[in-house]
């Protein structure tokens, strides 16, 4: 198994029988999910995706990735939320957060269309000068402002650089199969299109073309990624709490939440996990945070953040718990050197591997934080391979769905995201929206 939940550091916080007492509820939630009988059941395509994905499209994704690799220096991925976080998380996890700076035979990859910052846009445009470019615009709805505006700009840039015909071969659109502005635009312009399946929501879409095309362009084996998800799908179909770690993780979260632990901090010990943390935050935050309920997902990279948030975790308000994702084989080895002069006094570390020291920091922190009253769950991941990551993606998606059903919310909608959009369109005068004037209440 690529992913295992270790409950050793929950001793004193959760008894084993508390987890097993939840068994009937967990089984009911799992049955509801697998039989497709719960809230949001028209968004369950991700459950069977590792077996059921469109093989013909999968081949087209690989072929497009090969063409993109050959024809550009920079691959621009335009998308927001579920339309970019998974791909970025995968590239950083399997390759590196410094992917663009590495010596490689694949293009640099920049993510845009996920904010409205003129600074970020101007900087990226200047990086693109004199470079060969390809663009993947990703939007299920096809109408998301951040992404659509960025696409308007980069499409114009490509048309100016390569002409209409040249640009057409360099633009790839991932969107709804038949609906929406982006689909209509792509069909009219002749861009190659890939599908976000109707029954897969944005934050559950990393194993569709949404994630797979950018991931394949980065040179990551997407067959292995899907195989990892398939391994997880098979393991997590088990109704046995002993064998099914996603049920265990969902149970732990639920018990802690009911005990007033309203914040979950996902902890990584490697900078390459930063964007995975961001993907996880969106997955759980957007799935559970509704109807006045839900655990607030937060994240840190230790030991870096032990020097910022560490103080709060150790000693602040006792409303949080930690979930530590530990990668057994970090994928690189480096020995701390010996210095005969030892002026810095570090020879007690000489000859030790960085990873040994990093893992020791992890154990030291687990002991300190549990002593400080913070329940800790350890999620052990075998390595940084695409197969382990595919497993981990599916593991979190499955746990999230079970958690949402235990909480009594629909984990697959996101009605709250519309509020800011509506106000923004009203303030900006979008046709069809009633004008909104800002009248802030005076403070007395
Ligand atoms: O999870 C979700 O559904 C959202 O985060 C969407 O992915 C995000 O809002 C982008 O939407 P779209 O792909 O329609 O542009």
Helix segment tally? 16
Query: Span between N and C termini?
Result: 60 Å
State the order of secondary-structure elements, H for helix, E for strand: EHHHHEHEHEHEHEHHHEHEHEHEHH
Oligomer: single chain
TL;DR of this structure?
With 444 residues, the protein is an alpha/beta fold. It contains 16 helices and 10 strands. The strands form 2 sheets. The protein has a 5-stranded mixed β-sheet, with helices on both faces. A 5-stranded parallel β-sheet has the order 3-2-4-5-6, with helices on both faces.
Question: How are the SSEs ordered, and which strands pair?
Answer:
Elements: E1 3-6, H1 16-21, H2 23-35, H3 45-52, H4 55-71, E2 74-78, H5 85-95, E3 108-112, H6 118-128, E4 133-139, H7 145-168, E5 171-175, H8 181-189, E6 192-195, H9 209-217, H10 222-236, H11 245-258, E7 263-268, H12 274-288, E8 296-301, H13 310-315, E9 320-329, H14 354-371, E10 376-383, H15 386-407, H16 418-428
Parallel strand pairs: 2-3, 2-4, 4-5, 5-6, 7-8, 7-9, 9-10
Antiparallel strand pairs: 1-10
Bound molecules: 5-phosphoarabinonic acid.
């Amino acid at each position: 198994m690529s992913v295992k939940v270790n409950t050793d550091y929950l001793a004193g916080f959760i008894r084993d029988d508390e987890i097993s007492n939840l068994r009937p509820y967990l089984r009911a939630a799992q049955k509801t999910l697998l039989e497709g009988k719960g809230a949001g059941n028209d968004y369950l395509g991700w459950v069977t995706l590792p077996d059921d994905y469109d093989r013909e499209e999968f081949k087209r994704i690989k072929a497009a990735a090969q063409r993109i690799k050959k024809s550009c220096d920079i691959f621009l991925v335009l998308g927001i939320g579920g339309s970019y976080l998974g791909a970025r998380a995968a590239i950083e996890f399997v390759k590196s957060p410094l992917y663009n700076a590495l010596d490689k035979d694949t293009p640099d990859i920049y993510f845009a269309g996920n904010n409205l910052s003129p600074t970020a846009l101007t900087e990226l445009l200047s990086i693109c000068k004199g470079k060969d470019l390809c663009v993947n615009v990703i939007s299920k709805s096809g109408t998301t402002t951040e992404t659509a505006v960025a696409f308007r700009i980069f499409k114009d840039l490509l048309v100016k650089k390569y002409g209409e015909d040249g640009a057409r071969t360099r633009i790839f659109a991932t969107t709804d199969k038949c609906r929406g502005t982006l689909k209509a635009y792509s069909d009219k312009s002749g861009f190659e299109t890939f599908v976000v399946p109707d029954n897969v929501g944005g934050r559950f879409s990393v194993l569709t073309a949404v994630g797979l095309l950018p991931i394949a362009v980065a040179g990551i084996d997407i067959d292995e990624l899907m195989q990892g998800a398939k391994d997880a799908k098979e393991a997590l179909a088990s109704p046995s709490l002993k064998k099914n770690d996603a049920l265990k993780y969902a149970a732990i979260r639920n018990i802690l939440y009911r005990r007033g632990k309203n914040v979950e901090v996902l902890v990584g010990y490697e900078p390459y996990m930063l964007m995975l943390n961001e993907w996880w935050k969106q997955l759980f935050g957007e799935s559970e945070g509704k109807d006045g309920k839900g655990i607030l997902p937060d994240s840190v990279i230790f030991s870096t953040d032990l020097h910022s948030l560490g103080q709060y975790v150790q000693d602040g308000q006792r409303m949080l718990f930690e979930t530590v994702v530990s990668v057994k084989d970090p994928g690189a080895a480096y020995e701390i050197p010996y210095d005969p002069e030892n002026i810095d006094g570090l020879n007690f570390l000489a000859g030790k591997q960085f990873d040994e020291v990093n893992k020791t920091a992890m154990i030291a922190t687990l002991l300190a934080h549990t002593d400080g009253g913070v329940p800790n769950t350890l999620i052990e991941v075998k390595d940084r391979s695409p197969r382990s990551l595919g497993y981990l993606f599916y593991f979190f998606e499955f746990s999230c769905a079970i958690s949402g059903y235990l909480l009594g919310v629909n984990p697959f909608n996101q009605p709250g995201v519309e509020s800011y959009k509506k106000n923004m369109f009203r303030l900006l005068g979008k046709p069809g929206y009633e004008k909104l004037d800002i009248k802030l209440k005076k403070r007395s």
